[in-house]
Sodium:solute symporter (marine sediment metagenome), 397 residues
Amino acid sequence: MSAQLTCIAVFYLLIFVVGVYAARRYSKDETPQDLLLAGRRVPLLVGIFTLTATWVGGGYINGTAEAVYSPELGLIWAQAPWCYALSLVFGGLFFAGRMRRLGFTTLLDPFEVRYGKQVAAGLFLPAQLSEIFWCAAVLVALGTTFGTILDFDVRTSILISAAVAVGYTALGGLRSVAYTDVLQLLCILIGLGIAVPYVLSWSGGPKAVMHSYVEKMPGFPQGSAVWLWFDTALLLILGGIPWQAYFQRVLASANEKAAVRLSYLAGIGCAVMAVPAVIIGAAGSVVDWSTMPSGPPADAAHILPHVLQHLTPPAVATIGLAAVAAAVMSSADSSILSASSMFVWNVYRPLLRPGASNREMRCVLRVAVVAVGTAGTALALCVQSVYALWYLCADFV
């Protein structure tokens, strides 16, 4: 157990070092816009990685596995992965190019131009709450994973993870977030990719899992449930577009074409990255847990860490845990920065301190990062379901 904790501690240290290194590339003369948008010079490949990593958070992975495993939901109700992927595609098709061409700084800038500063500031509240809910969802996913695999205190794991994410985000803004996202997405891909073969082997192989799962899970909804299915799908697709975390990457792209390509390719990446979680959830539902000392998980939300702990070797479980931790930080830091950016640019700058200096704006941004991170952490300590928070995020925006 101590070796597993040591590995996770080293991983956290590595992420923090990368974030601090990226932050040191800033100069004292850079404007708040440079801090928010990395000077609008984010390379396309880095942009794809950071946008995909932002969407593929701990809630994305744990929530997908939870839905696939749950007898009441099943694969047909695991809508969030493909719906959020489509939201990125539609965002690129209808909004990304124009937003980047007009040179906006945040999602709320078009509303400020059209309706005025007060309206834009009012719209900040639901956008901020959505980001806080998203941050809380991914922190809960990490807490349950730590508690299941390492028998580590859930509250402590949430607090440590949030502190690391807040630390490098406050120091380097989008540049730190983007470059840590590259490392984090690679960790997710490797960590869950290594775990899947062990899980399938324990469950009888891919064909056996597919056959057993199709027989066990409910089919497509019937009657009035069909309309509920379409309603929730549209909620996620349309609700997945107006996110500052998304448009922050779009607006940080080098040009209009890069912003559109970024959206399309990240949407594909999001769909692909959901596959390991779907497999783990399906395998967990067909395993005969009665033959195992551990039994089934106490809650469907714990299925992914439960499978990693009991169906993979300890070393693989630790790598899988690192993957979930990477997913959490890649989403948490983005949500924290997004909400803080909107506050500084659309509330503080135009309404509270129109003549604020660049230095003051940078300081306020860092204070806002700490405040938003604290709010998301506090909510994470009080909630239960990852998937419920996920829907709530889309509903608010």
Observations:
- The domain at 41-396 is CATH 1.20.1730.10 (Sodium/glucose cotransporter).
- The mean pLDDT is 86.
- The radius of gyration is 20 Å.
